[in-house]
Write a structure and sequence with these properties.
By secondary structure, the protein is of the alpha/beta class. 34% of the residues lie in helices and 21% in strands. The protein contains twelve helices and 16 strands. The longest helix is centred in the middle third of the chain and has 17 residues, at 141-157. The structure holds NADP nicotinamide-adenine-dinucleotide phosphate. NADP nicotinamide-adenine-dinucleotide phosphate is lined by residues 4-10, 29-32, 81-84, 86, 90, 105-108, 140-141, 174, 298-299, 302.
């Protein structure tokens, strides 16, 4: 397996997948000569770069194993972790010509001229549909989080749910990003998340708005679920999530920063929890409406999801078995227990 890109997502994928004993890890791609090359080499990853810049990397004293093209050639599957939209160009110039299967990230298009795949994966909803496919998009952090919360509710309450309205409150930049955080609340005129979720929950009566706020600490989703008649009780709602993979139920956090800082303090890899955290202290039920607020670990959510997707595409493994392996690699059940204890 080759990871094409070494940004916020690529670095995390490399940490996890290089530790998976059933993966022969080819290495990572770097495109810019910067300190992250040093980090990758210190982590003992083979670094591949575009042919035309190999000499520039070498002049800076960095050891380069080969070209990106060589790495793709020697891989059986690529996880593309390019900046939004870059995956399409890679598909056209590398993966298609060399007949290589690839997983793309949530910033790529599902529809239109630059579509990279005809399916968005969410391990809670359509894991087995990815089995044996050549190209699949792993849904973004928000899309992964929404699927993880909606599907258990659908399974328990089905037709009783009339509609979902979600306000996505998104961080301005990741902790590792060098770009400044702008003091403004910005709206998204056309959030892609609504259509992306409908790709795997096609009949959901879902409306999504997205706002970017001056924070680097996770996302917060406020989901309003409207029922026909009276809504279920708070306990009935929470019961749906008690045994859900990648969902923690916590009470005493005051904000997203508390959760992120705790993950860093506890030494979780990259400061990620890899899950959503339902804030039960602000879960409200009134008349026909349930309001669930959960924080969504934007950088960490999609990493185990990529691992699940890889197992479906390559091994066609049953979901339960894949989940056990992903849990063991990411220690998600353990992290969940710790977080629930810390924030009880
Ligand atoms: N950040 C998140 O929280 C998050 C969450 C879920 C999904 N995603 C999705 O994941 C993808 C990557 O996001 P990111 O946050 O990791 O972006 P990022 O931090 O900006 O990293 C992008 C990486 O792409 C590399 N790159 C440049 N040209 C490339 C090419 N032709 N092929 C492959 N890689 C290339 C860059 O390498 P150099 O640094 O060497 O130039 C950089 O390491 C996007 O689709 C994004 O929507 C991001």
């Amino acid at each position: 397996m080759f990871i094409n890109g070494y940004g916020n997502i690529g670095r995390r994928l490399a940490t996890a997948l290089s530790m998976d004993k059933e993966v022969q890890f080819v290495g990572i791609a770097k495109y810019t000569v910067d300190d992250k090359v040093k980090e990758a080499l210190e982590n003992r990853f083979n670094v591949y770069v575009p042919e035309e810049v190999i000499s520039a990397f070498k002049e800076r004293g960095y050891s380069v194993t080969g070209s990106v093209k060589d790495a793709v050639k020697h891989s059986e599957i690529v996880i593309d972790a390019a900046k939004e939209g870059g995956g399409y160009d890679n598909k056209k110039s590398l993966y298609e010509p060399m007949n290589k299967p690839a997983i793309f990230q949530g910033g790529e298009d599902r529809h239109g001229d630059r579509a990279v795949a005809d399916m968005i994966h969410n391990s809670r909803v359509n894991y087995s549909k990815a089995a044996g496919r050549t190209y699949v998009i792993q849904g973004s952090c928000n899309v992964s989080g929404m699927g993880r919360v909606m599907q258990p509710l659908i399974e328990k309450f089905g037709d009783r749910i009339r509609r979902y309205d979600v306000e996505l409150v998104r961080r301005w930049a990741d902790l590792e990003d060098s770009k400044a955080v702008k003091d403004s609340i910005e709206w998204d005129r056309n959030p892609h998340h609504q259509d992306d979720v409908k790709d795997f929950i096609s009949n959901a009566n879902l409306y999504v708005d997205a706002f970017k706020v001056p924070s680097r600490m996770m996302h917060l989703h406020q989901m309003f679920i409207r029922f026909s008649g009276k809504a279920p009780t708070k306990d009935e709602i929470l019961e749906c999530f008690r045994n859900e993979f990648g969902v923690a139920i916590i009470s005493s956090a005051k904000g997203t920063g508390d959760v992120r800082k705790k993950a860093i303090e506890l030494g979780f890899a990259h400061g990620d929890t890899n899950m959503v955290h339902i804030h039960q202290d602000i879960l409200r039920v009134q008349d026909d409406t349930v309001k669930i607020a959960y924080s969504d670990d934007q950088t960490g959510m999609v990493i185990p999801e990529n691992h699940m997707l890889f197992q479906s595409m390559v091994f066609k493994r049953p979901r339960e078995e894949a989940m056990k392996r992903t849990d063991s690699l990411f220690q998600m059940s353990k992290k969940r227990r710790i977080l629930e204890e810390e924030f009880k």
